[in-house]
Design a protein that fits this description.
Length: 253
C-alpha cells in the first residue's frame, strides 16, 4: 500500500511538472508578445506622444516593455526550476510571477484611467497644440509629430482644415502664404499647402482628433487584452508552482 502511494505521488509530481512546463512555454510566448507590443508602440508610434498632454500613455508603454522583458527572464528561470526540481528556484519563480502580476495590474490601472479621460484631453490639447505650438521655435518635436500624424492618418487639422486658419504658424511670415501645413497635402511637395482645395489636401470628417482618439483607444484596449491574458496565465502558473513545490517538499520528508 505504501509503495502504491509513493508511485501515485511520483505520478502526480511528473504530471504537475509537465503541466507547469507547458504553462511556462505559453507564459514565455506571452512575454515575448507583450515585449514586442511595447517596443512596436515606442518605435513606430512614439511620434504621436508629443501631441499628448499626459505622459500616462508613454508610462504604460514603458511598463509593458519592462513586464515583457521580466516575463521572458522569468520564463527561462521557470524552465530551469522545473527541470532541476529545485524548490528554492520554484520559490523565486513564484515571487517573480507575483511581481509581474502587480506590474501588469499597475499598467492596467494607468491604461484604464487614461482611457476614461482620453477624449477630453485630446479635444483640449490637440487644438491648442496646432494653433500655438506648431512651427514655433523650440517646438520641433511637436511640429514633426503633427506632420507625421496628419500624413499617417490622412487628415488635416484637429476637427477640420479650417482649424489652421487661427494657427500662429499660418499667420506668420514663415508660412509663405500657406493656408495649411504641407503635411495636409495628399502629395507632399514644398509649399503645396498654399492651395487648400479638397483635391489637394485631406478633408476628413472629424479631422485628426477623431482618428487619433480611435487609434489610442484601440491601442489601449489591445494593451489591456494582452495584459489580462497574461495575468490569467500567471494565476494558473502560481497555483501550479505552489502545488509542485508542495509535492517536492513532501517527497523529501
Amino acid at each position: 500500500m505504501a509503495q502504491y502511494k509513493a508511485e501515485q505521488d511520483d505520478w502526480l509530481s511528473v504530471y504537475l511538472k509537465y503541466l507547469l512546463f507547458v504553462f511556462n512555454f505559453f507564459f514565455w510566448v506571452g512575454g515575448a508578445a507583450v515585449l514586442a507590443l511595447g517596443v512596436w508602440t515606442l518605435v513606430e508610434k512614439s511620434g504621436y506622444l508629443s501631441v499628448l498632454a499626459s505622459s500616462t500613455f508613454a508610462a504604460s508603454t514603458y511598463i509593458l516593455i519592462f513586464a515583457g522583458a521580466l516575463i521572458m527572464v522569468t520564463g527561462f528561470l521557470g524552465f530551469s526550476a522545473i527541470i532541476q526540481e529545485d524548490r528554492s528556484c520554484l520559490s523565486t519563480y513564484f515571487c517573480l510571477l507575483l511581481v509581474i502580476f502587480l506590474v501588469e495590474l499597475v499598467a492596467g490601472v494607468l491604461a484604464h484611467m487614461y482611457y476614461q479621460r482620453l477624449s477630453d484631453e485630446l479635444k483640449q490639447h490637440l487644438t491648442r497644440t496646432l494653433s500655438e505650438n506648431y512651427g514655433q521655435p523650440g517646438a520641433a518635436a511637436i511640429t514633426t509629430s503633427v506632420d507625421h500624424l496628419q500624413q499617417d492618418f490622412k487628415c488635416c487639422g484637429s476637427n477640420s482644415s479650417a482649424d489652421w486658419q487661427h494657427s500662429a504658424y499660418i499667420l506668420s511670415p514663415e508660412a509663405e502664404g500657406r493656408q495649411v501645413p504641407d503635411s495636409c497635402c495628399k502629395t507632399v511637395v514644398v509649399r503645396c499647402g498654399q492651395r487648400a482645395h479638397p483635391s489637394n489636401i485631406y478633408k476628413v470628417e472629424g479631422g485628426c482628433l477623431t482618428k487619433l482618439e480611435q487609434f489610442l483607444a484601440d491601442h489601449l484596449l489591445l494593451m489591456g487584452a494582452v495584459g489580462i491574458g497574461v495575468a490569467c496565465l500567471q494565476i494558473c502558473g502560481m497555483l501550479l508552482t505552489c502545488c509542485l513545490r508542495r509535492r517536492l517538499q513532501l517527497r523529501f520528508y
